[in-house]
Structure formats: structure tokens, C-alpha cells
Amino acid sequence: MMGPAHSLSGAAAWLGVGAAAAAAGHPMPWPVLVCGALICAGAALAPDLDHKSATISRAFGPLSRWLCEVVDAISHAVYKATKMRGDSNRNGGHRTLTHTWVWAVLVGAGMSVLAMQGGRWAVLGILFVHMVLAIEGLLWRAARVSSDVLVWLLGAASAWILAGVLDQPGNGASWLFSEPGQQYLWLGLPVVLGALVHDIGDALTVSGCPILWPIPIGRKRWYPVGPPKGMRFKAGSWVELRVLMPVFMVLGGVGGLSALGYI
After folding, report:
1. Claim to verify: residue 151 and residue 263 sit in the same structural domain
2. Residue 27 lies in a domain
3. Residue 118 in domain
4. 252 & 167 share domain
5. pLDDT digit string (tens) for the chain, length 263 residues
């Protein structure tokens, strides 16, 4: 799928988690719901860091372009080192390592540890990166005709405001993990969810997605998981734009209202 659909699906997924958490007796404070939805929307763009034309690869100027080259090279090297006889030869690393459950869990765990150990500035950094990505994904029409600096400023302002709100007692710094020293441990959860939602979205497209790596399936370790070929669609097609994106909006709205106790 394309960036806007990925971001929208990520936000909808976290709002759905909020509804499920409320039903399970662990309701999210509204700042956690809002902040998590935006982080998840941004994280749903992150797996495409292995592609030079992706939104995330352009979002932070030369830094993200350089990081894209590094991630692509690492992904390609891992693919070549672990592929089985049935896996095809590839010239790049797109839709390999960063599109697996392993990557999602590792990145999410890293964000949790960073947030827990790094203090306020680490939390601000995590929020800033994901706010910028959320803006690029959810407000893509405006972001594309705006300057990068304005997007970064909006991301920084959003991160600062959200961090200040979350720091207030009862607003969610210790949601779900309440032991001393576990503040913001939950920040890794929307990161994991966003990456997995991205992978599932890509699995619905023509090329499929190797979500299950390194688990071998048949003669392939990088098996492109997906529905039957007749049910797949091309990224950016009318199915994505006119069917899935409206569905994501409706599901996100219902999930958000349910999480807040309105329905």
C-alpha cells in the first residue's frame, strides 16, 4: 500500500486497541489514545525505510536518505545470507528485513528501552520522529506542497505538547506498566503495531510480504505471505483509495469513540 493508507491503517489499529483495552478493564487515558494513534500512524511508514522513494526516506532530508541506503544494504545482505533455494535473487533489500515480525518487535523493544532509560529527551525524540511521519502520512496533501522545515516545526511542537500532557499525573506516562522506572514503557507498543499493520497491508498487495521470516515455508525462507492472488490489488489502486481508506477511517472513528466510552 501507499503511505497515506499505511498511516491511516496504523492510526485505526491503535484506536481499535484502545477500544479493546477499555473492554478488558485497562482503559487508555485520552492522551495515550491520541499519542499512540499518532505514533502508530508514523510507525506504519517506517518499514519502507529500505526504499529510496518512500515517504520516510525523504522525511528528514539527507539524514533519512543516508539511513535508507544503510538499511537497504543491511536488508539485502541479510536476505542473501539467509535465503533458501526457493527464494529468488534480488538486487536490493526492499520488502525484506524491515517487513518482518522480527524487525517490528526489535524496533518496538528498542523504543521502549530508549523511552524508559533515556528520560524526557528520549521521549521527545521518539515523539518528534513519529509526529513528523504521521504528518507526512495523514496530511500528505498539505505536507507535499509544504517545506520540510515547516513539517519538522509542526512535529516538534506536537511532540513538546504531547510530552507535557503525558507527564501530568494520571495522563498516561505509566499506563499499563505502573512499577517504578517503567514510565513510557508502553511507547514501544504502537511502534510494533504500526510496523505489523504495514506488513499486513503490503501482504494484501500483488507482491505479498515476508512477514513470517525467518520461519521457512516450503522451499522459501522469505515466503511472500498474502491472500489468494485473485484477492490481491496493486498499491495505489482504486481498492486501496476508494475502499480500504474509507473503511480505515470508519473503523478508527468507531474504535476511538469506544475507547473513550461514548459507545
Report:
1. no
2. no
3. yes
4. no
5. 788 899 999 999 999 999 999 999 889 999 999 999 999 999 999 999 998 888 899 899 999 999 999 999 999 999 999 999 999 988 888 899 999 999 999 999 999 999 999 988 999 999 999 999 999 999 977 877 788 899 999 999 999 999 999 999 888 888 888 888 888 999 999 999 999 999 999 999 998 999 999 999 999 999 999 999 888 888 888 888 899 999 999 999 999 999 998 98
- Domain limits for position 89: 3-7+38-229
Say how far apart CA 97 and CA 83 lie, in whole Å.
11
221 found inside a domain: yes
CA–CA distances in Å: residue 92 to residues 36, 103, 187, 246: 32, 17, 31, 33
Q: Could you give the number of structural domains in the chain? A: 2
Pair 126, 85 in one domain: yes
* Residue pair 13/197 in contact by the 8 Å Cβ criterion: yes
236: left (phi over 0), alpha (psi -120 to 50) or beta: left
Rounded to two decimals, the pTM is: 0.93
